[in-house]
Amino acid sequence: MLAQIVLFDGFDLLDVLAPYEVLHAGGMASGGALRAELVSAEGPREVVSGVGGVPLPATAALDPARADLVVVPGAAGRVGEPGEVPDHDADADPGEWREDELIPVLLGRTLNTGLPGLLKAAMDRPEVTVATVCGGSLVPAMAGLLEGRYATTHHMGLDMLDATGVNAIRARVVDDGDLVTGAGVTSGLDLGLYLLERELGPRIAHAVEELFAYERRGTPWRHHGPSPVAL
């Protein structure tokens, strides 16, 4: 099983590294049943994160024909909306505020790359699971690929996700079949462990939990079973 974790300019480091380490450890615990690699839409290149400009190497191109699992991270930058005017202290340098550092702008830039088309190709293949961490769900959502689906994102982006026609769910992990999404940044750990349990079994996931001294948080949400009454 091949997991391809996507890098794009401005990606969030923890969104990438948390699921990468979990999936890599799951591969070791399963005797090589899973392999994780870092990729980009453009192919092998050094990709600069939005966290202090730290680079990571993409070693291959995102390839929906090869991948069994595609993981899309969110972006790291300033919180805000394009066009808004921030409040500055009297001594602040106005040049320190750059609109191109805003998370929605960084995510929106992916729409001008080959990533949306590759994600569509992945989602058109029923044997491929697309997973996202934090704001990563907004990438396919803004590309019109998640209309009517159930998904989550960082709590500050739920309204934006809902505006794209997605059934936005406030949960740590949401399983919508071939689409599995995680909420805030640290949910990449929970997402990775859930994917291990789902794809390789609970014993592998438990072994990685023990290795990392971390227990998965929350109950993964699925559109299944009776609707709860108001509590």
Automatic annotation (TrEMBL):
InterPro entries: Class_I_gatase-like, DJ-1/PfpI, INH-QAR. Coiled coil: none annotated. It holds the Pfam family DJ-1_PfpI. Residues 119-197 form the DJ-1/PfpI domain. PANTHER family: ARAC-FAMILY TRANSCRIPTIONAL REGULATOR, DJ-1_PFPI DOMAIN-CONTAINING PROTEIN. This is DJ-1/PfpI family protein.
